[in-house]
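request received
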Amino acid sequence: MTRNDIKDLILEIIADIDEDADFDNLQSDQPLRDQLDLDSMDFLDIVMELRKRHQLQIPEEDYPHLATLSSCVNYLEPLLENS
Amino acid sequence: MKIPLLIIGSGLSGLAAAIRYARYSPDVLILEKHSRIGGLNSYYYRNKILIETGLHAITNYAKPKDKKAPLNQIFRQLKLNRKNLSLHEQNQSEIRFIDRESLIFSNDFSLLREQIQEKFPHCAEGFQNLIAAINAYSPYKPKPFLSTRAFVGRYISDPLLSEMLLCPLMYYGSSLENDMDLSQFIIIFRSIFMEGLFRPHGTIKEFLDMLFDHYKNFGGSIRTNSPVKRIIYKARRVYAVQLESGEIIHCDNILSTIGYEETLALLDRQVEKDTARRICFIESIFLLPISCRDNFSQTKTIIFYNKSETFRYERPREIIDLNSGVICFPSHFSGVEPRQYFEIRSTHLTDYQRWKSLENDKPAYIAEKHNLSRRSGNFIENIIGNFNENIVYEDTFTPLTIERFAGKKEGAIYGRPRKIKDGRIGFDNLFLAGTDQGYFGIIGSMLSGISMVNQHILPTL
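response:
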């Protein structure tokens, strides 16, 4: 997967969790939590969707890597290299 | 085959937990001892009439745009589309302390504020401070037991007002006699007074069917008529359950929604003595011809009443305590279509032990049921006007009915007085959800199931 594919994947998962999510002014280096009003249950959903779609196991201590869109891409890039 | 997640009980906490898990993995099995799902919130048929067992009203009404509200969180976590379910808000409800004072509330919190301003002007400022304290409190953080009475007493100087505020909250959500755990009070205060009451369209059957279809669409499984006889374990790990039929089902995790002591019994573990008594109710259902609907004020959805000097929320000395109770009109919600009959329900505190002593004397038990239903019907006429001569059908649930059909110890719908909020009962892969985990009502039960799966099961997948 390219960095752009990963970014689209994350946005698609978030759109699936919250159909009203507004990505227009999303800053990729700012926390998703604040910009999209996500809570810890929503982050669990992102982790679970990644597992379901790409069989990724993300340990709890790695959840902070999912804080911003850029950090998600950085973290997931090596893991999704071959998908 | 080994099942990754076994859920014991298909009440609302079990169903919500199962859907939450099935959303990510279909390998989940619910074991239900009855032929029908729903647990305490189910239904049955008499003379082809569908009668609901538990539902008066659902708490936590919220508008769709209020994303953080518990109701919308549930929809989001279970991936249910709220647009597929129409909700009917309550008209108005009343807290009536007979011959003393009455407070009206609705899903618009400002009504209760105005009522207190008007009827308890000396407490208006205290009430504002109480609301500020409630808003500032984090009830979901684990905390030791704190007394609600002590907390409310700090803000409300008039005991009559504190009793009046506590009356509906205790009836709709306290497992404890004469007090409440503070966190529980904060949750239930917000869910009843600040959010409000509603009913889903149709009956509890349509609501359960919707949840169950959703669960099946995710690929989840259920086995009804499958009571669990014991849970097989070694040290801190459970391995399987054995059904009453003898069949053994192996599993990785178990979520039990049947209650703490009820679960320990399946583990052959000694139950630590809880000295606090369980709260038990008797509920009567009166059906009248639909033409009688105009005899009642549409504005009253639920009436919480009390007539004694101090409101006593405790196991009564007599078999029934008519001094307080709840009267519910299930059709008095905005936009509810009339059904075949007009329904009135009454709920009072009752003493389980007295019913237990009648268990083996069926004629005496039936006579007592009928007698108390009549006493309740006659008593509440003082509050809502005459209706007894029009009754076409009447039925009563005693704690024995609930114990028999829903398996709740002593038929106590709110379970054991003290709760186990983290759901941990001494095992690494067996957890508790539902009533004894600590959240009540349909919304509370569903949140309980969801949060226990989120905390204990999903992260281990």
